[in-house]
Write a structure and sequence with these properties.
Blueprint (H helix, E strand, L loop, with lengths): L14 E3 L6 E3 L7 H6 L2 H4 L5 H11 L8 H83 L2 E3 L12 H4 L4 E7 L12 E7 L3 E2 L14 E11 L2 E11 L6 H18 L4 E7 L7 E3 L6 E3 L6 H13 L2 E2 L12 E5 L3 E5 L14 E5 L7
Parallel strand pairs: 8-9
Antiparallel strand pairs: 1-2, 3-5, 4-5, 6-7, 7-8, 9-13, 10-11, 12-13, 14-15
Helix pairs in contact: 6-7
Keywords: Metal-binding, Zinc, Zinc-finger
Pfam families: Exo_endo_phos_2
GO cellular component, one term: extracellular matrix
């Protein structure tokens, strides 16, 4: 094969072919040095173009110059500027509308903030009123504590064997600060020279109302003393019925207790808003008690032990009274009971008189009376 430029015979190691015109020539004939030719990679040789083809490509890629009419160009510019002005006006309209919306939103939020400030001021006023009410409650609590102290000073002989005889006067037992209410044994009726009885001593500043309480029926040889105590703090008043009882152990005991249970049950129905506390020597020696929980009283375990335990359980269930005494006597029995619909704390205290009766330890009964308005 001959070189297309010098027409001499080509050798395989010195020829190069143009990819565009397919002409084969010596590398020297197309202006390549021997060093450049040897450095050329085979992949680049396959894409190599001769100088003539490169020049023709550049000419074909050059931009064409067209003659333009100046008037047409001005019309084109005017059209473009008009379109731009239209776009600007549309954008101005959009911005104006969006600004109006933002202004309206700010106005609405301003109104909400104003309403919130008003609500906060109202809440602050309510809090101030609440603080004032709390201060009033604190004052009522102080009055209630004083009233509770006065109530706790009610002295009652909780079915203790006091040997109440006609020759023993109230002034020998209590000073002039107390009013004494007592029920002595009918010694002539039962042919006794000494006997038992019940007694309640109340501070004179505490109001006692006996007018609306029905009279106690004749309960055989039992002794019953009952009071209606009015507790007041400010304009709030609550009534507490206090019953002190003693039942001797004899053949009439179950009948006597049943009469008292029926009487107190009627009081429960007739005066549903009154609180009741029944304390005394019930002499139910076979009763077994267990603590239910810290917020309630003691539970009678052996309800079916005998007629006395059965009557007591039925009475407590009907009147919803709890038993709170846990102080055992010398024989580890509970003969003295404290039944109430109010939570009571019962503890041992000093005896009212000497000597102390080992079967009936002296008790301090603290009653938790909550005064609330209706």
């Amino acid at each position: 094969m001959d070189c297309k430029y010098c027409s001499e015979v080509l050798k395989g190691d010195e020829c190069i072919k143009c990819v565009s015109c397919n002409r084969t020539s010596h590398f020297q004939c197309v202006g390549l040095s021997e060093a450049d030719f040897k450095r050329m990679l085979p992949m680049n040789r396959a894409k190599w173009k001769c100088p003539i083809c490169k020049t023709s490509n550049k000419s074909s890629n050059s931009p064409q110059v067209f003659s333009t009419d100046a008037k047409s160009l001005l019309l084109l510019f005017d059209e473009r500027f008009n379109n731009l002005n239209t776009t600007i006006e549309s954008f101005k309209t959009f911005i104006t509308e969006e600004f109006r919306k933002v202004t309206e939103t700010v106005k609405q939020w301003s109104e909400k903030i104003t309403n919130m400030e008003s609500s906060i001021n109202s809440i602050i006023q309510r809090m101030n009123d609440f603080d004032l009410e709390i201060s009033k409650i604190a004052h009522l609590e102080s009055e209630l504590k004083e009233l509770q102290m006065s109530f706790n000073e009610i002295k009652e002989n909780n079915s203790k064997k006091t040997w109440l005889l006609p020759g023993i006067f109230n002034e020998e037992l209590f000073d002039t600060r107390y009013d004494v209410y007592r029920t002595d044994r009918d010694y002539q009726r039962f042919n006794l020279s000494m006997g038992d009885g019940t007694l309640i001593a109340v501070r004179r500043e505490i109001n006692i109302d006996l007018r609306n309480i029905p009279q106690i029926p004749d309960i055989n040889d039992a002794n019953i003393t009952i009071l209606n105590i009015n507790l007041r703090t400010g304009a709030v008043q609550k009534s507490l019925i206090v019953v002190c009882c003693y039942f001797p152990q004899n053949c009439n005991q179950s009948d006597s207790q049943l009469k008292l249970f029926e009487y107190v049950s009627d009081l429960r129905l007739d005066f549903p808003l009154y609180n009741i506390i029944v304390m005394g020597d019930f002499n139910i020696k076979d009763a077994t008690w267990s603590l239910q929980n810290s917020d309630s009283g003691f539970k009678l375990e052996n309800i079916s032990e005998n007629i006395l335990t059965y009557q007591l359980s039925t009475f407590m269930s009907f009147t919803d009274l709890q038993q709170y005494n846990c102080v055992l006597n010398n024989n580890n029995r509970l003969l003295d009971l404290v039944l109430s619909d109010l939570k009571c704390l019962v503890s041992r205290t000093l005896p009212l008189s000497e000597p102390e009766d080992g079967h009936h330890p002296p008790l301090l009964v603290e009653n938790y009376q909550k005064l609330t308005g209706n």
